[in-house]
Structures are given as C-alpha cells and as structure tokens.
Amino acid sequence: MSDTTPPQRTSREPGSSRFVKRLRGEEPTLTIELRPPRSGLTRGGAMDMWIDLSHAIRGVAARDAFLMLTDSAVGEEEEENLQHLTANLATEVEPWRVVPFLTCLHPLDYCLRYGDRARARGVESLTVTGGDRVRGADRCVPHGYMLRRQLRERAKGLSLGGWVNLHRPLAEQIGFATDPEFEADYYLTQVVSHHDLPLVGRWLAGAEREGLEIPGSFGVFYYRNGRRTVLERLSRFFPVPVEAVASAFEAGVTPERHCAETIVALRRQGAAHVYLCNLAPQRAATQFDRIMAEVAALEAGAG
Fold first, then answer.
1. Does 9 reside within a domain?
2. Tally of structural domains, the chain
C-alpha cells in the first residue's frame, strides 16, 4: 500500500507536543509499548496480529494513555508502525497519542522521509534510537543523536525522544542526556523495577544535580510469569533481576501485582511517568485495567 501524502508544515515548537507536556506535569502518566507483527509472516498471520494490535490501541487510547509502537524491537524486523497508523487507525485514534519508535536500522533517506510522514499524519512525538542489531541491517548513522539532529532540521515541530540506560554508569548516561548534542525533548529509560530502585534514586539525584531539563518516562516490564528459564532468556535483551522476580512469583505475587508494585515504588521515588512493556496485544486493555486496579489498591494502602 502506497503512502504518498505530502508532508505538511506546522508552526508547533519542538518539545511542545502533548506527550512532552504531560511528562513535564506532576500528574502521573502511563504509556503502553506495543510491538507490530514481525516481518515475513504469512498474510493471514500478519493480518490477525494487526487486528489484535488495533483492538489494543483503541482500548488503551480510550483509557487516556499514550501508545508507543516499536521498530525492530529486540533485533527482529517488524512491519512498519506508521503505515498501520495511517492505513487502519487514522479515523479512530488521535495520532498525537501515538509515540512511535524509529531506529537507525534503515537507510537514511527512509528515516528522514519517515519524519516527514509522521508529522504529516499528526504524530507529535517520535523516539529515535540507535536500535538493536538486526541481521543484515546496518545503522545509517552510528548513534541516535545524529539522526535526531537531522530530523530536527527537516521535520520541524516534531518532539524527539532519546534513550538512557540506568544500568550503565551514571556519569556516562547523565553526560549523554545533558549534552546539547543529545537533541532530545524527552528521554525513555531502559527497563527498571522495584528490585533495583537504587538505580532510579541515583539517576534522579544525578539528573537534578547536573541540571537535566528534559523530562523522562521510565520503562516497566510486565512479566507474564516467573519461570527462571523465561527470565534468563529475557536477560539477553535487558537486565532482569531473575532471582528476585522468580521468588516474588513463587510467593504468589501475580503479574499485575508485580507490575503495580514497580509503578508505585517508582512514583514514591519521584518517577511519576512510566511506560509498560510486554502487554499481550489481544489482552492489553484488560491487563492495563488490572494493573491500574492493583496500583490504586497499593496507593490506598489496601495492599
């Protein structure tokens, strides 16, 4: 399906998207990260997954959440996220609620045109990262900030996001995020949990000390089960506190409760804005509601 709508100029200033404004506010926000179907599926298989994803996006958007759509997550090529928004959801979901990822794992011309297309479709925020290595795909530029710099000039008006990893050395990551060349209006963090809260505390203290001005959203992973084999496999992609998570599940903690405990712990630390990873597309709205019910119970002191 072609995508030939010409880019439209906007007078909106960078960093003024509704997503960034919400991140700058004190009211907690929740964003849901969802993955498009993998490339190479049969037509029927891809269509079924797109249908599930469409239901999830509609359901979560109705709950006043933002949506992130990944781009070649964990090193697997995926169907293009923006094309689905344009073709199937344009009249049903407000495009400013969708915050796509764009990695550098595409030709440079494609990435720059992606920024034009996103802006033309009403997308206000775009997270630009280097991307996990995909077999056969090289980065068009070595680092995400280099692509953000070019998009800043070309797709004026888009709010651009960057990436920080709280599991890496603090000084290194704070240095990246406070460098003017970071070219970001907000940041997302690697996944953290209530099992490694000191990382969050050190980051927040360091960000305040060094005068980091851009707001951020902290990654929270929805562990569907606590089997050690599954957790160890996940740890190939991001740091997982395997023993702590497994022990929690063995003690009877549910996936929703475990996720809620992280959200509440982050809020108490001062990290009010989080994005949730790994919800099942066909059950995302239901899982979201259950997580939020657990959050409400914990914050009310009922848990």
1. no
2. 1
